[in-house]
Amino acid sequence: MIDETLHDGGRSKKMKCSRCGATLENGKLFCPVCGQEVQLVPDYETVETVYYKQKAIKKEEQLRKENRRAAREEMERQEAVRRKKLRKKRISLLVSLFVFLLLSGLLAMLLITQKHQNSYTYQIEKAGEFLENQEYERAQIYLERAEELEPGREEAYLMELQLLMENEKTERLTLRFNQLVECDPDNIAYYGAMISYFEERKEPERIKELLDECSSDTVRKNYAEYITEDPEFSLQDGSYNSIQTVTFLSDGTDEIYYTLDGTSPDRNSTRYQEGITLSEGDTLIKAIAYNEKNIPGNVVTASYHVTLKSPNPPSIYPRSGEYTTQSDTNLYIVVPEGCTAHYAFDRKATQDDPIYTGPVPMLMGEHSFYAVLVNENGKISSQGSIVYKLTET
Question: Which of 54, 309, 326, 335 lies 20 to 30 Å (CA to CA) from residue 317?
Answer without folding.
Answer: 309
